[in-house]
């Protein structure tokens, strides 16, 4: 439909040529996806969606990147659970397609009993081995993942959302980084549940007590890791917009927790950063123009 002040209702149905570029931000049917991909090729960007397991499988094939990824398996059974708990003293059980920490469980052992904590719930469950097998059978669509011992701040888990986008020249750049401090004693860093957030470099200073120089060095390290990761994912699909979640452990090692292919562009507004919001919103449009002009 085309806006037209001369017609009743101001909108008229029109047949138009394909645009020079398409930026995918929503679900579409398989048929529509296949036709757009065939017609547009790489001018149809952020085209391929992937879940947490598909992301881990793809990214972990690059040895440079694998060292930043927590060990993960989609084999949901008691033997794999025990192997991970023995190696890491605990595990996360996460849905492949989950977001915002929903339906995430932390599991550890106390003697012969399994102790489960669910995100957003202030209680624990104790299960026998037989009960745990039943529990796992109901979570086959999840992943078992190595827990990262994130450096906490006042008993809050902390992670960072990096907005990594291609710019108007077709190169990856960071358009913003936000530090997210989870609720006190929470099992994740989801700040919307009684936590708080701030600009990324300021968060590094608060979390680690860094001075300006060391905070900037850690920021640059994080961005370089994220760019390596984006370049890897770009080999298997046309991408230009990622929200990458990273954490830093108590030895100051950077870990990549998750890669979001349809990130929330409104996060900068939650820390009242209008400039970051503008860049996050406008960069995909600038890249689309770059692509549409034949680059």
Would you kindly provide a written description of the structure presented here, covering whatever features stand out?
The protein is α+β, with helices and mostly antiparallel strands and 295 residues long. Helices cover 33% and strands 26% of the residues. It contains nine helices and 15 strands. The chain has helices spanning 30-40, 52-59, 63-66, 78-88, 129-137, 200-208, 212-234, 267-270, 274-292, and strands at residues 2-3, 11-12, 22-23, 44-45, 72-73, 91-95, 105-110, 113-118, 124-127, 142-145, 156-166, 172-184, 196-199, 241-248, 254-260. A six-stranded antiparallel β-sheet has the order 5-10-6-7-8-9. It is globular, with a radius of gyration of 21 Å. The relative contact order is 0.15.
**Helix-and-strand structural type:** alpha+beta
Which strand order spans the largest sheet, edge to edge or round the barrel? 5-10-6-7-8-9
| Mean pLDDT over the residues | 92
Strand count, sense and barrel status of the largest sheet are: 6 strands, antiparallel
Cα end-to-end separation: 28 Å
Strand content: 25-35%
Succession of helices and strands: EEEHEHHEHEEEEHEEEEHHEEHH
Basic shape: globular
Proportion in helices: 25-40%
Question: For the CA atoms, what is the radius of gyration?
Answer: 21 Å
Which key features would you list for this structure?
295 residues; alpha+beta; six-stranded antiparallel β-sheet; five-stranded antiparallel β-sheet; 9 helices; 33% helix; globular
């Amino acid at each position: 439909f085309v806006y037209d002040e001369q017609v009743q209702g101001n909108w008229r149905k029109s047949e138009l040529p394909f645009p020079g570029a398409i930026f995918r931000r929503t679900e579409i049917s398989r048929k529509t996806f296949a036709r757009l991909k065939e017609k547009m090729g790489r001018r149809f960007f952020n085209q391929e969606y992937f879940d947490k397991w598909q992301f881990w499988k793809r990214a972990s094939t690059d040895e440079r990147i694998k060292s930043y990824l927590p060990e993960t398996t989609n084999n949901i059974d008691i033997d794999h659970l025990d192997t991970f708990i023995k190696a890491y003293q605990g595990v996360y059980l996460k849905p492949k397609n989950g977001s915002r920490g929903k339906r995430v469980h932390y599991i550890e052992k106390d003697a012969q009993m399994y102790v489960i904590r669910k995100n957003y719930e202030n209680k624990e469950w104790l299960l026998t081995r037989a009960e745990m097998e039943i529990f796992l059978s109901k979570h086959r669509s999840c992943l078992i993942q190595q827990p990262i011992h994130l450096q906490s701040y006042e008993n809050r888990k902390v992670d960072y959302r990096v907005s990594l986008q291609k710019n108007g020249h077709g190169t990856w750049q960071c358009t913003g980084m936000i530090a997210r401090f989870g609720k006190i004693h929470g099992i994740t860093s989801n700040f919307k549940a009684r936590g708080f957030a701030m600009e990324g470099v300021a968060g590094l200073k608060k979390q680690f007590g860094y001075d300006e120089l060391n905070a900037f060095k850690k920021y640059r390290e994080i961005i370089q890791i994220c760019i390596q990761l984006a370049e890897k994912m770009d080999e298997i699909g046309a991408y230009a917009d990622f929200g990458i979640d990273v954490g830093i452990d108590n030895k100051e090692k950077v870990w990549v927790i998750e890669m979001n292919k349809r990130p929330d562009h409104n996060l900068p507004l939650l820390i009242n950063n209008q400039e970051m919001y503008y860049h996050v919103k406008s960069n995909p449009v600038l890249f689309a123009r770059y692509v549409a002009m034949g680059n």
